[in-house]
Amino acid sequence: MIYNLPRKRTNNPENMWIINSTPTTTNLDVSIKFTYEYNGVTKESDRIFLYAGGKTGHSIAYIGFNHADDIVYSAGDCMLVYFTGWLSDSLRTITFLEPPTGDLLKWLQANAVKQ
């Protein structure tokens, strides 16, 4: 009898980025799986949003993060959150489960450091 355990998904350190402490924002909505750490727990997301104005101000959101519209970074002009900057410094480090491409890659190259 052969029993196959489910494959454990592992982070690819080649796809790890640390986002700048004060990144620029643009309007970008990308479906891509990545992991991050918050309060000592590694979590997974499958979408990243960058907002450049409006009710959400200049901000970054990870889908599935929390119940406050998923915003993890705010430039201080967001009407949905009470904080300015990163909700937690650990949220700046994200590891993509597949290599980022296109507009997301361009944004990362301008606003983050690849590890």
Descriptive overview:
The chain is mainly β and 115 residues long. The protein has one domain (14-107). It is built from one helix and ten strands, in the order βββββββββαβ. The strands form two sheets. It has a five-stranded antiparallel β-sheet with strand order 4-3-9-1-10. A five-stranded antiparallel β-sheet has the order 2-5-6-7-8, with no helix packed on it. A hairpin with an 8-residue loop joins β6 (58-62) and β7 (71-74). It is globular.
Which properties best describe this structure?
115 residues; five-stranded antiparallel beta sheet; 10 strands
Structural class: mainly beta
Shape: globular
Poorly predicted regions are: 5-9
Helix content: under 10%
- Output the strand order for the largest sheet: 4-3-9-1-10
Domains (count): 1
Kindly report the average pLDDT value.
Answer: 87
**Could you describe the largest sheet, including whether it forms a barrel?**
5 strands, antiparallel
- What is the gyration radius calculated from CA atoms? 15 Å
Alpha-carbon distance between the termini? 43 Å
Counting copies of identical and different chains, the oligomeric state is single chain
Q: Tell me how many strands there are.
A: 10
Question: What order do the SSEs take from the amino end to the carboxyl end, as H and E?
Answer: EEEEEEEEEHE
Number of helices: 1
